Protein 1
Amino acid sequence: MASCPRISETPRSQRAVAVNRWDPESSIVVSTVSYPAGAARLDGVAERIARAAGIREEERRLVIGGADILLDSNERILSIELYSNPQNWTEESLAGAAAAEPVWLSFEVDYDPNGVATVEVPLAVARDRAHRRLVIRFGDPAPGVHYLRAADDLLVGLGAASELRELVLENLDRPLSGEA
């Protein structure tokens, strides 16, 4: 079994916004992230030439423990999808991380020629109905997780070795399963 991927981060000043949805009929959790026009982690000569020439940038996909993370060519998260049965979720009081630093993320994984990386690790889901939070946990439980803000309403929890341990989706716009 592989270990959780390491993540490097770079501070960002541009705002990114995640919209998190839970569809109880299909048992799919979706987080969609948007960025302001022109916000890019990398904007070198190659990126400017590609934009000017109208060349579409390649997307990448990271599948980790059953969660599907779509990334743009700058490794910005575009979406996260997870098919999960809420009967397997644990109920917890989940603290937010309001002071988490906004960052650009870079996943340290090897992509295949099709731009897909797969990491097989255990996955667990916890929810906090009162605060409308959902946490996707990767690998074995890790003490001392610290949080970074990938976008408004999307936190990334890292372990001591800067490995991905959690994705925290805040402010789900649909009720969690079983809520009125």
Protein 2
Amino acid sequence: MRPLRQAALRHLAALALGRTGQVDAARMQLSDIPAHFVEELLEELDRGGWRPADRLRLCALLASDPRPRVRRRVAESLGGTGFSLASTQRLIEALVSDRCNSVRAAAADTLATLLREADELDQADLAWSWATSARRPLRLAIARALSMPFALPAADLVIELLASDRSPEVCAAAARAAEVRFDESPDVLGAVLEGLVAHPSRAVRRAARRAARARLWGAAPPVTPARAGRPFLSLELSRSLPLSPVAS
């Protein structure tokens, strides 16, 4: 490690291990260190050499960095060896509520990694508490995490709940999760997708149609039985077609 990098690492360590509530001052000093430098240091920490508790303190400090790329890298680092769902949950909650979408997405990916390593009781407790939270970022984060392949008890029921969320963004994420986990519970998740293709939000309908084509319909939406000698297209497909003038 070059002397300058050693000095920067010692500086960050001192801020992280010796902070006593002077968060604003620490943030100002962090911004003086080039972002790519901080990212390199985090990569070195990921390779080992620090106790998990000290790494967590450093990550907690860097999560307050004003630069989104640093906060995103912190979110990714929390999925590394030595961290657990219990030890990182409060910090993950802050990162999934970040003002930058790329940070929130990275934190949701890390949440999936941590859930994969947790025991079933902790998995179920976090999944249900976040899915029913009054905080939309937590509901969105668990919906995004469920689109990653890992075992979770009653995942279909969690997705079913999220698909009824008042936030279109959460519903769209639930549609993607239903697509990924469709084989776990075809009946429940098939009904979820069928319901979401008629959602008021265009973004949700688009996500649901994409998932339904992959898992339910094949290449095209189904055609309902003919009525009065004319084929009657499904509601969702008919909405996408131009209306013809009606002869008087």
Protein 3
Amino acid sequence: MTYPSGTIVTRKIKGEKEDWHLKGNALCTSIFKIDLEKCENIVFVGDEDETIKIISVPPLKNQKMFTIKKDLENGHTFNPQFHLEEKPLPLEEQREYTVKQTDEIEEKVSRMEEAFKTLPFEIMPESDLKEEIKKLGLDHFVDPHFPPRDTSIH
């Protein structure tokens, strides 16, 4: 499930067990609540007597939340109720994160600009270009003639 903020909840099924993960892609704390009250023959692994779990995941983290176990031999009914609440970080923390990300992007752009000044990237085969990008320790190409800066817009 993908939420509008970009937060993603996934289930990894391994036979009778399911691992539930939450990947936070926003500057907010994600609070995930699941209720198994309307399920039959399904339990939380390690908390078999519990029917409700509330998990808090920090901003921009990928975290396993819990594992459930289904009774495959006797049958089961899977009808969970769940809810995601997202609490934004305070504005000052958001600004700090934005500044940090901007600095990291600027550093990557500068490295790429410097490296590609001497390379004919416009006519290089794609495979060679990908190799050069890997050598720089980067994960994607940034055009040094049109970097992602405010000055490129004008």
Protein 4
Amino acid sequence: MIKKIVILAILLLMFKLSIEDIRTRQVSKFGMYSVIFFAIVCKIVDLYNGKIFPEMELILILPGIILLLIGCVNKEVCGMGDGMALLAMGMMLSVAEYLRGIITLGVITFIFSGMILLLKRDAGKCKIPYIPFIFIGMLAGSIYSFVRK
């Protein structure tokens, strides 16, 4: 029950950050640190309940770590907020939920990007906010968590 409340808090924060990212192409550091904090709380709850598998935990947070490293190397062209959001997603979801979320995130990003390429002339110069797609992926993965018993 506690984990579901924490996941709901993360989703609400991610919704707020998604709107912020769409409007300004930036997210507040406080908001992202709050999401990371709640994701760590999810991991602590999982640890308390005995639902942590160390080898899988590394695999789940690896995409977020890689995106953070890419952000450091190329001076945040791919933002640090995106890496933190993927890191939080890996910490808050189980393997099955994470895979559902990542697949949903990828498909929706692919469709949206394809539409922009087809409809806009200067699509190559267009910057797309990524946090809303990560939010949708988190939501898709979390729905399974809320529905199962």
